[in-house]
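User: Structure tokens for this complex, please. No commentary.
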Amino acid sequence: MIREKLDNYYSFVFEKELLDEIEQVGVYKKLRENELLVDLGDKMKGVPLLLDGAIKIVREDKKGEEILLYFLERGDTCASSFASAISNGKCGIRAIAEKESEIIFLPKEKLDEWLVKYKSWRNFVIDSYNIRLNEMMETIDTLAFMRMDERLYKYLKDKAQIMRETSLNTTHQDIAYDMHTSRVVISRLLKQLENEGKIKLNRNKIEILEF
Amino acid sequence: MIREKLDNYYSFVFEKELLDEIEQVGVYKKLRENELLVDLGDKMKGVPLLLDGAIKIVREDKKGEEILLYFLERGDTCASSFASAISNGKCGIRAIAEKESEIIFLPKEKLDEWLVKYKSWRNFVIDSYNIRLNEMMETIDTLAFMRMDERLYKYLKDKAQIMRETSLNTTHQDIAYDMHTSRVVISRLLKQLENEGKIKLNRNKIEILEF
DNA sequence: GTTGCTATGTAACTTTTGTTACATTAGTTA
DNA sequence: TAACTAATGTAACAAAAGTTACATAGCAAC
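Assistant:
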């Protein structure tokens, strides 16, 4: 069963021998919606490969203020965990399942070994880091160059894409937490987007009309 | 001469055999102050190892708006170049020497080969990515959680540290470019910091009194 | 010196974002 | 249905950041 899911998303990424090894040592885990996968300061004993679902990666500062960094989808891994696992350091982020998700945990002992043995693993690790660096840069662009209303609209579209839905089940308060602003600001801007015909508001639900 | 500088900063990082190889294939280059090392959209043919100096890494969006991402110091490499070199993709950043700097260019053909051969190279690459991810997170924290006056003070202190000086030769306009705001805002906040006794302002020069 | 250029200082005003306070609405439970 | 709770709507105001416009100061070339 695991092998089947693994093959689904990773058979074109990894060599057969590596897939075999992953099947042997990987630990399958199913995550409930809103389940905490990684918390701030955790020391990772391995890295998660995402088979299905969506994981939200959040940054928190000393004062407990939060901001969304990016989402992981199937085929992704958490570069920050990789960092933490291989260096025995602490993880600087929090990872929460946005919806029911499936992962395979790879034990950290194998991570370096596979770098030597498998070209496909080297590529995957380097690619993962690159994707993450690019996501971070996009986040920085968003924070540095966009106004709150643009950021909000982008947030809604991005989240809809990750969740594979055109309407989101969420509250204004939750969005405010992700964007590190206040609920009132979000309500105001959402109403503005609704007036522009880009979205439709309902209780606990936002439909996106224009992508 | 190169070997000497290489040994200075990297003899505890790389194995002897790797240092030998780097000496053979690496290309030494000296950068003048303000010299452009990498531009947006460049395809990298190798990665720079920083021997000495300071490199400013800047992000630019489509509209040509800029923001400082972080600085590189000796011992650092540019993860974004590594990404670009190994994947033949384009580089998403701009790198400019903040002062006279010395680098060694490593040809991209070796990068993967060394990952297999040298444990110290694997560690260095992974560490570099991790350091960069952490810098990016710090930049995000700064943008998301701090007000402009705090960001400015942090900018001054960070830059002073990188330049190894307690006073900076720079103009308000240049700071405004780095922080993606306007000169007037910077002048206003600098004056405020001066009134608080944290800095002293002169033409083309800012002394930092409190760290 | 005078001229000219660059950098800095600052006032006045606008826009954006954040805050407080309270009303209304939809859904849930007693 | 009444009572309660969570979510949303909105006004009024405050703070932060951005903009325009212009004055002044420092420095260099003539």
